[in-house]
Structure formats: structure tokens, C-alpha cells
Amino acid sequence: MTVRDEVLALVAAMAPDTASEPDLNSALIGDLGYTSLRLVELSIAVERAFELPQLNPELLAGVYTVSDLVDLVEAQKDRI
Predict the structure, then answer these.
(1) Could you report the per-residue pLDDT of 20-57, keeping only the tens digit for each?
(2) CA 66 – CA 27 distance, rounded (Å)
């Protein structure tokens, strides 16, 4: 399973709005119904799933879509 597939599965499992299946262009807040609290929960789940160090708020501030999250995870995995 690729990072992309794992992130998509995690986002789908945690998405508050299950009416639509997330894709790379899905906006976490607008399309999938994530709230700020749910985004914090997602960031913790991503840290654990990919064994990443704690993601700082500056990095997370640029994450709007599933694709942004995939890019962030891949970049962080490359650093460890």
C-alpha cells in the first residue's frame, strides 16, 4: 500500500461527512466536513500511522486537501 492509499484510507475512515468518497482533490474542511478538532485528531492519527514526529502547526497550516496531506507525509517520511 502506498502512502497515498494509506492517507486516503485514513482520511476516509475519520471523515465526518461520509456522503462522498475522498480523492486527492477533496478539501478536508469544505468537502469532507472536517472541523478544527477533527483535523487535530487526524494529525495525531497520521503521526501514529506513519511513525512521524509531532507535526508542528506551521506545517499543518498549509494542508487544505488530501493531496496536501499526502505531500506532507511523504516529505516528513523522507526526513526520518
Answers:
(1) 789 999 999 999 999 999 999 999 999 999 999 999 88
(2) 7
